[in-house]
Amino acid sequence: MMFARWVDIIGHKTFAFRRQFSWAFHPAVQSRHNADLRILTGYSVKSPPTTSPLRPSACPGLLRVVQALDGGICRIKLEGGSIRSDQARAVAQAAQLYAGGEIEATNRANLQIRGIGVHQAALIDSLLAADLGPATAAGDDVRNLMLSPSAGIDRHMLVDTRPLAREILTSLQTHARFHELSAKFAVQLDGGEALAMLAHPHDLWLSAADLGGELSLVFGFAGCPTDRPVAAVSLQDGHALVIAVLETFLELARPDQTRMRHVLAERSPEQLLQILAKRVPLRSVDKWRRRVTAPGLHLGTYAQLQKGLVHVGVMPPLGRLNPSMLNGAARLAEQFGDASLRLTPWQSLLLPNVRQADASLVTRQLQDLGYLIDAAEPLTHLVACTGSAGCSKGLADTKGDARLLGALRKNERSQDQVHLTGCARSCACAHTAPVTLLASSNGRYDVYFRDAALPGFGALQARNLTIEAAGALLDARPRSPLDA
């Protein structure tokens, strides 16, 4: 077995961490003496991982399979959420051959394979052969950069963010200092698109803005583009700003401080700006506010910037795909699109660059594959973690209960997102949903309504409800002005 040949470069502290979490590093990282490691697949890894991670992570990655109740999890981070059709087929094949055939779309526009057994090495080899790995082994954890799913094709965008994103991702993966970042540290680059996730908090966010006729990037810390920005830079200084923020964070943060909010608990944004101003030219921002667009644009057919082309958005139920669904979408992307797919932070899928005349046919075929195509379907507004079926911390079968709740609400027209979580960690939803059902025991939930004046999930409405009782409560739910 390839994984049997462990060597000491993983480091003593990492082996101690493995007593709690199962870490599975690919053999490409096994020699500290070879600067250009090549595995049997031909994938090149430029440098080994850090020997003693400053901020060790329990999160899965492509080179680290983390054990769950239903087997190992391998997370495949996608550049800007985009994946070629041949790569999608490789993911589907890996899930079918080396795992339980279960694929998840994540709320960070990535994919992950669940239920991995003893064939971890073969699974990782196959994904690396498809060019889905990082530029450096240690860079896998830190390639956390979110773009709009419609970057480069959105009719409302101010800037095509993809070239800058490639610069940032290269720096994240190849600058050894940045490998000290937590696997949860994340950056958002917003080009002003209509289709944009504006609710997920990021450690650093940048948003394209027209400031007095000059295209710029406004930015903020530990928040979202809908927040008030702290300052702005020119488009040309976008990459330099990101580098400066990351370096400043690492200089100020203690090893136990993994997120920007931890640093901001001890220092003001103004103090950070004073440091940044010495490294990159900053300008003040007075009245800019991010334009908020209609919800639900991740589903349906929408015209692109490119004349005559559209993107088609669909959703796998509760973010779960089987190999046939992913293979089918890849085939349609090759037949009717540009042989690529885009994952979204709504755990959904876009087929870009489809001819307008073909959109209806593509949509019908995606529906036949098992995708949800209409925002009127209740399941498109439900988010659920793996739950007790796959996670030892889950107190209820959240996926099963979500399907039941969707069936109970099939005639309900509310488009408020409802989040079912098996524990308080809230893994499936990166923001506070309008409604949260927190499992209290098997089949029972505490119900919270989001309240802008309260932290966490919001205002507790009821305890220990069955899913049927929770559904009845939701049907009677009044709209609150505090629900922001």
Describe the secondary structure blueprint for this structure.
Blueprint: H1 12-17, E1 37-38, E2 44-45, E3 66-68, E4 71-76, E5 82-84, H2 85-98, E6 102-105, E7 111-116, H3 120-129, E8 145-146, H4 162-174, E9 187-190, E10 202-211, E11 214-223, E12 231-234, H5 238-252, H6 260-264, H7 269-276, E13 300-303, E14 309-314, E15 320-321, H8 323-336, E16 340-343, E17 349-355, H9 359-369, E18 382-384, H10 398-408, E19 418-421, E20 435-441, E21 444-449, E22 459-466, H11 467-475
Parallel strand pairs: 8-9, 9-10, 18-19, 19-20
Antiparallel strand pairs: 1-2, 3-4, 4-7, 5-16, 6-7, 6-15, 10-11, 11-12, 13-14, 14-17, 16-17, 20-21, 21-22
Helix pairs in contact: 2-3, 2-8, 4-5, 8-9, 10-11
Description:
49% of the residues are buried. This protein has four domains: 136 residues, no CATH class; 112 residues, Sulfite Reductase Hemoprotein, domain 1; 76 residues, 2-Layer Sandwich (Alpha-Beta Plaits); 97 residues, 2-Layer Sandwich (Sulfite Reductase Hemoprotein, domain 1). 24% of the residues lie in helices and 22% in strands. Helix 4 runs parallel beside helix 5. The chain is built from eleven helices and 22 strands. The chain has a five-stranded antiparallel sheet. A five-stranded antiparallel sheet has the order 5-16-17-14-13. A five-stranded mixed sheet has the order 8-9-10-11-12.
